[in-house]
Design brief:
The chain has a single domain, classed as Rossmann fold (3-Layer(aba) Sandwich). It has eleven helices and seven strands. The protein binds adenosine-5'-triphosphate and magnesium ion. Adenosine-5'-triphosphate binds next to helix 1 and helix 8.
């Protein structure tokens, strides 16, 4: 386990418990870790107390990023914000069941140690389906799924037919999320606000990109997710990983004599717009988030009402 910021640095916040943001998608390489990093840094920069959990015990991308950031922080000329970070260790026993039990215990401890002392917990998940990954999904207050502009990515949500206007069957990852929602509702009547974020969008608008947007908009009422414009494909979203920085950090002070490049400005705007679109709770007991979810569910019931009237 790696812990960077000192837990005792923080006072007990006014929220009853942390808002859990899970970044998940069973499809590999869609940008889960990239979004986990940028959402975490944006929340830290907005002054929130943030804890992070890396459930990807194999790749540990989020952990590697914060290790890099911590080492940069030691000599940086400005304040470098760090979350309270947990990296789950991988069970090394020959017995799968023992490994699952160990990993579950470590995850439960990680959640218990942060849920009352932090305003947000950001959990990065692996692409593989596992008990722990499913459990994390059912704990989400907000589930963020990055999706690239490709029908291969869309196919994990709803099966894509050659006639793309046809409704496809619910596919394996969407099924996993719907199951997590059912479980969550049974346990505490909690609602998972599921946000599909387009990632690595090409800067030149293509017909493919438009078709993907239409497909996601069609699927959204049935699967009950909110489709969002997310991040374009930009070098700045990947080039700063080795030094643990992001476009939100004042890197221009170090390298460009105080000027902000066009790419950095656009990247910042995209991250800020993305975090705003998540409609996360403000400090006053999560009411804003609750209201946003009510608006969303009302919009869905209106959609179905209009559909019935049109039939
Ligand atoms: N918006 C973006 N612009 C440019 N590069 C990006 C963007 N988002 C992600 N990438 C790059 O795409 C690759 C995959 O991203 P990332 O590792 O975040 O995905 P992941 O879903 O966490 O992958 P895995 O399933 O393996 O955990 C990385 O090389 C990352 O730097
Ligand atoms: Mg990852």
């Amino acid at each position: 386990m790696a812990v960077f910021a000192d837990e005792s640095d923080f006072e007990v916040p006014d929220l009853r418990s942390a808002h859990v943001i899970v970044i998940g998608n069973e499809k590999g390489g869609t940008g889960k870790s990239t979004l986990s990093i940028h959402i975490t840094i944006a929340l830290l920069k907005a002054g929130f107390r943030v804890a992070t959990i890396d459930l990807d015990t194999r790749q540990r991308t989020l952990t590697r990023f914060f290790e890099n950031r911590q080492s940069w922080a030691q000599t940086a000329p400005w304040e470098v914000e760090l979350p309270f970070h947990h990296a789950l260790d991988r069970g090394s026993s020959a017995n799968v069941h023992d490994n699952e039990t160990m990993e579950f215990g470590a995850f439960a401890d990680a959640i218990a140690s942060v849920e009352h002392a932090y305003e947000f917990v950001v959990i990065d998940t692996p692409a593989s389906d596992s008990y722990l990954m499913r459990l994390a999904h059912s704990l989400a207050d907000t589930l963020v799924s990055p999706v690239n502009d490709s029908y291969i990515d869309v196919d994990v949500f709803s099966r894509v037919h050659h006639d793309r206007s046809r409704r496809g069957e619910i596919a394996h990852y969407a099924d996993l999320v719907l199951e997590a929602r059912r479980k969550r509702h049974l346990v505490d009547q909690g609602i998972i606000d599921w946000v599909l974020v387009r990632n690595r969008v090409a800067s030149i608008q293509s017909n493919n990109s438009k078709q993907i947007a239409i497909s996601l908009a069609r699927m959204s009422p049935e699967l009950q997710f909110r489709p969002m414009e997310g991040l374009h494909d930009r070098v700045i979203f990947r080039e700063l990983f080795p030094i643990g920085l992001t476009a939100l950090d004042p890197i221009e002070e170090a390298s460009r004599g105080g000027t902000l490049s066009q790419s950095q400005q656009s990247a910042r705007k995209e991250i800020e717009a993305l975090v705003a679109s998540l409609q996360l709770p403000e400090r006053n007991a999560g009411m804003a988030h609750l209201q946003a979810r009510h608006v969303w569910f009302e919009r869905i019931s209106n959609f179905y009402r209009n559909l019935r009237e049109d039939m």
